[in-house]
Every structure is written in structure tokens, then in C-alpha cells.
Design brief:
Radius of gyration: 34 Å
Number of strands: 21
Shape: flat
Structural class: alpha/beta
Number of helices: 17
Helix content: 25-40%
Distance between the termini: 48 Å
């Protein structure tokens, strides 16, 4: 019986394990977007962080539309969960309270947070709805929570926090005494922020890629001749790669002051040494912020280069964080956002509303929306310098057998990535295309061997000339250089690049058809408990039923047999009753 119980338990466990086939990562709500984000991040790990295009939004655009309240921060959570990697924050130095705050207006001395309605504050002929419950710590706590919830090799990304420093300024005179009394600091007005920039970002300090971490890395490069990426280390200002920052230094964000408009006065904020140790300023980290008009001129030069290789090498070896900021007067469009990302810029959504498509990838039902989720749903497919819009498309039963016109069976496997003029697409590995060969020492130098058309499975190292190998672009500049080379060499799309998800679906890796996914399914204690829970419950129920059967069982045949023999023995002893021991 015990053997039967063990076999049943094992059987139930195996059935449950088969049915609970958890993927190697969490099941995403928008799988295509998450796979695209993760793949682009993975292929870009050998690239310096200043050469990576990212997208994000401005908090001020949200506050202007919905008010400076804690409820407005739900849009920040939505943006982070949708893959936003840039957060621009306007911080105001309040000269009345000597506090950094989010609201552009000072709080009156009699202001209270107990009111059910958000008070309207007037300052410099502008009116703002500002809630005393909204503090800079609220923003930092949300960013910290997001980082902690995604702090794994599978989910981690690098976030740019951009700061615009401004002033709530007044000219001091005999006539401003009443003004100072009206905005005199109290316990509530000083709770909305901190007195220094260092204190403002103290909750995130353990995750910040700060100047001291950068200096330590550069010292290591100079002293040990570190050649993690030899080509990019030729830059005059060496920056670490994404792999180094995320997986070696375990840093998740960078804080960069892109503008400092604090008014000079006796009450102005003075940047101290602790601030400089935690935060980058424009004079310590080369940064360029463009408007759409300026960005169009820049992209025209990059997208149609006259001296392609020299231009691309110069861009790759010039350390510069390049952002583009739109406004209500000049908003991003789907076409423009795609162009800006492909030419190496990082767009920051700063307008209060955008033209969105109610049906993605169609031109119908367009309308303006200020909802962050709707905007991201419409624009997110165009955030990638790598994938074409809507890619990577997943195909059910991606490895099948088809029958051609001659009745012959042929294999079909939509598991490999090919390059088209609008980006990467998932294609059939058995199709024959030309291949992309990259110079081993100069990543912007590409060669498309003429007359070589192969299936993805048939590509070999010798198919590329000496000094080149079958590869893929790992940054937007490498992507542009490849597209330029294809045009110059009169090659035709599509072209195979070294990327596939043959081993595990939606886990795209380079290194040929046998490359292993770095996110193999691991059974943690929590997952193991989830997997065996149903089988364990079934086993316990079976054991309880067997135990109850043992306790409450009544076997009438055996009971009758016992009574029968007891009666017979009694009758026998009554007829043969011996005294003493029989001889």
C-alpha cells in the first residue's frame, strides 16, 4: 500500500510540474514590448552607457496637466513599468524655506495639508495646484521601489534622472517684509523637500552611478589596461559599458543636472562637495539637450552621411549624452520619434498631450491624449533603434513542416532575426539571405559578402573574410553604419544578423543556433513551492482518505468469522472441561 501511495504522489507531482511550465521570466502584460526592451538591452551590454538611446518623460508635464499631487505620481509608476528609462524632474529652490521642492510656488505660512481639495497657489502671475502631501521623497520612494522590484539580471535597466534646477526667488527689500511673513516656513512647508541635493537623493544613493564610481573605473582602465571593449576605450573620455554598470558595479541610475537656473542671490543654493560626489553636472559629464528643430538638422547629417565610416567612428568615440526635449508647440510624432532614436538621441516626452492611435499600427482613430498609458501604448513600438515597429512578432508552432508545390517536405522555423530597412524582423531560419560581417576591431565597418546566400543554420565562420565575423549591430551608431554599408555595397534586404531565439522562445541571443539563453529556468524556493503545492495537496488528501479508511473500516466478513470460531471454541471447552493437566 505504501508503494502505491508513493507512486500516486510521484505521478501527481510529474503531472503538476508539466502543467505548471513557468517561463524563464515573468509573463509580461505586453510580451512583445518587454521582449524588445530586454533584447536591445542585452545586445547593448558591451556598449558604453553614453552611446545608448533611451526614452522617458518629464514629471513637470504630468504635474502641469494633473496638478502637483501625490495622485499624479501614478503616471510615473506606469511609465517605469512600460520601460521608461529617463525621468526629468524640475526642482525648485524655495528661498523662503531653503528647501528643494517640486511645486513652482511657495506655500503660504497658513497652508495646511488637512484640506480635502488641492489648494491653488499663485506666484509670478501663474497659478498652480500644489498639495503639501507631495514631497520629493515620494518620487524617490517610487523610483526606489521600482528598482528593488526589478533588481535582477533579467529585468534590470539603467535609468537617467535629469534635473532642471530652478528658483522660487524674490528681491529682498523693505517692501518684502510682509511677503516674508506670508511665506514664513513652518513644519508642513519644510516637509515637502530637503535642504540639500544630497539629502534629496539619499534614498537612492546605493543605486546611483556617481562620479566617484566613474573615477574608480577610469583609474582601473588606466592602471590595468582594461580592454573590455577595446574600440570604445580609445575614447578621450572613457565611459563604462552597460554590462559593467549593471552587473559589476550594481548601479541602476545616473543623476545628471542638465540645467542650473538657480538665481544668484544671498539666499541661493550653493552646490557643495557632497553634491558633486553624488550627482553629475554638465561640466563633469558632457551632455547635449536639443530641441526638435536642432535635432532634425543633426539627424539629417547622421542618417545621410557623406563620409560614413569616419563620421560613425567619431560619434562612437565622442562621449556625449544626447537628449531631445519636445514641447506643446513642437510635439513628437511617430515618424519623428523613430528618426530621433535611430540617429542616437534619447527623446524625453515633455508635452502635456500627444496624438495617439487607438489602434496601434493604423492611421485611423487618431486623437490627442494626456494619458501616459495611452501615449506609451501608441509610441512604444517606435522606441527602438533595433527592432522594426511591432517586432519581435511571435509565431505559434514556430518550427513546423510545410509541403511545397512538388510535394516535398520543407522545414520552417521563425526563430532567427533578419535586417530590413526599417529594423530587425523575426524570419524563417531556412530562408537563404546574405549575411552581415563586422570588422572585429572596428565595429562600424561592415561587409556583406557578395554571392553568399545561406540559411541561418548553414552560416559558418569562414563565410566572412579574414578580420570579420558574422555579427549584429549593438548600438544605434553600429546599426546606422550597417545600413549605410548595405546601400554602398548594393546589397539587398533582408540580411541575416547573428540573433535568434532557437534555444528558448523569446530569449534572443547571439552566437549561432546553439547559443544558450542566459536566463535558463531556475527553480527558486518560491517557485518550487508553487509547483509542488497542487501535487502536495492531492497527496495529503489521498493519505487522509487512506487513514480514515483504516480507522473507520468495518469488515463484516472478518467480524462474522471471529464470532463463529469464538462460539465453537466455547462449546468445545464446555464439553471437554479438564481438571488439572491432561495426561
Amino acid at each position: 500500500m505504501q508503494l502505491v501511495i508513493k507512486i500516486l504522489c510521484l505521478l501527481f507531482f510529474l503531472i503538476d510540474l508539466t502543467l505548471s511550465d513557468y517561463p524563464f521570466g515573468q509573463t509580461p502584460t505586453n510580451e512583445t514590448l518587454e521582449v524588445a526592451l530586454r533584447t536591445q538591452r542585452d545586445v547593448s551590454k558591451p556598449i558604453p552607457i553614453d552611446q545608448l538611446s533611451v526614452t522617458g518623460l518629464s514629471l513637470s508635464s504630468i504635474f502641469q496637466e494633473k496638478g502637483y499631487t501625490t495622485d499624479s505620481l501614478s503616471d510615473l509608476v506606469t511609465a517605469l513599468n512600460k520601460g521608461s528609462q529617463v525621468i526629468m524632474i524640475d526642482l525648485y529652490w524655495n528661498e523662503f524655506t531653503s528647501i528643494w521642492q517640486l511645486c513652482p510656488a511657495p506655500f503660504p505660512q497658513n497652508a495646511s495639508s488637512s484640506s480635502d481639495t488641492t489648494p491653488s497657489l499663485s506666484w509670478n502671475n501663474q497659478t498652480y495646484k500644489c498639495d503639501l502631501n507631495l514631497a520629493t521623497d515620494n518620487v524617490m520612494s517610487m523610483i526606489s521601489s521600482y528598482i528593488m522590484s526589478t533588481n535582477t539580471d533579467y529585468q534590470a535597466n539603467f535609468i537617467h534622472v535629469l534635473l532642471n534646477l530652478k528658483s522660487i526667488h524674490y528681491e529682498k527689500s523693505n517692501q518684502t517684509i510682509s511677503l516674508e511673513d506670508a511665506y514664513k516656513p513652518n513644519a508642513q512647508s519644510t516637509s515637502v523637500g530637503n535642504s540639500t541635493l544630497t539629502e534629496t537623493f539619499s534614498k537612492l544613493s546605493q543605486y546611483i552611478f556617481d562620479p566617484s564610481v566613474l573615477n574608480d573605473y577610469r583609474s582601473q582602465v588606466n592602471s590595468e589596461n582594461l580592454n573590455e571593449v577595446s574600440f570604445y576605450n580609445r575614447s578621450s573620455i572613457v565611459m563604462p559599458t552597460l554590462r559593467t554598470v549593471l552587473l559589476n558595479q550594481y548601479r541602476r541610475l545616473l543623476v545628471n543636472v542638465i540645467s542650473n537656473d538657480v538665481v544668484e542671490s544671498r539666499r541661493a543654493y550653493t552646490v557643495n562637495d557632497l553634491d558633486k560626489q553624488l550627482i553629475f553636472f554638465n561640466d563633469t559629464l558632457p551632455t547635449t539637450v536639443l530641441t526638435p528643430k536642432n535635432a532634425d538638422n543633426y539627424c539629417d547629417q547622421v542618417l545621410k552621411p557623406t563620409n560614413g565610416l569616419d563620421l560613425f567612428n567619431n560619434l562612437s568615440l565622442t562621449t556625449n549624452f544626447r537628449y531631445i526635449l519636445d514641447s506643446d508647440s513642437d510635439r513628437f510624432s511617430l515618424k519623428k520619434i523613430r528618426k530621433y532614436v535611430r540617429c542616437g538621441l534619447s527623446p524625453v516626452f515633455n508635452a502635456t498631450s500627444y496624438n495617439v492611435q487607438n489602434q496601434t499600427f493604423t492611421n485611423s482613430s487618431n486623437s490627442n491624449s494626456s494619458d501616459v498609458e495611452e501615449v506609451y501604448q501608441s509610441y512604444a513600438p517606435y522606441f527602438f533603434w533595433s527592432w522594426g515597429p511591432g517586432e519581435p512578432m511571435t509565431v505559434d508552432n514556430s518550427t513546423t513542416n510545410n509541403t511545397d508545390n512538388d510535394g516535398q517536405r520543407e522545414n520552417v522555423a521563425y526563430k532567427c532575426v533578419m535586417l530590413r530597412n526599417d529594423g530587425w524582423h523575426v524570419g524563417d531560419c531556412y530562408e537563404r539571405y546574405e549575411i552581415a560581417c563586422q570588422n572585429k576591431s572596428s565595429p562600424n565597418d561592415w561587409l556583406i559578402p557578395s554571392g553568399v546566400k545561406k540559411t541561418y543554420f548553414d552560416i559558418r565562420a569562414e563565410d566572412c573574410p579574414d578580420g570579420y565575423n558574422f555579427s549584429l549591430p549593438r548600438s544605434n551608431i553600429e546599426m546606422l553604419s550597417l545600413l549605410t554599408s548595405i546601400g554602398q555595397q548594393n546589397s539587398t534586404f533582408p540580411i541575416w544578423i547573428d540573433l535568434n531565439d532557437i534555444t528558448i522562445s523569446t530569449c534572443f541571443v547571439s552566437g549561432g543556433p546553439y547559443a544558450q539563453c542566459p536566463y535558463q529556468r531556475t527553480v527558486t524556493s518560491q517557485k518550487f513551492a508553487r509547483m509542488i503545492a497542487p501535487a502536495s495537496v492531492i497527496c495529503i488528501i489521498v493519505l487522509i482518505l487512506i487513514l480514515m479508511e483504516k480507522i473507520f473500516r468495518t469488515n463484516h466478513i472478518q467480524a462474522n468469522r471471529k464470532r463463529y470460531w469464538k462460539k465453537k471454541l466455547t462449546e468445545y471447552y464446555s464439553k471437554n472441561d479438564y481438571e488439572g493437566v491432561p495426561s
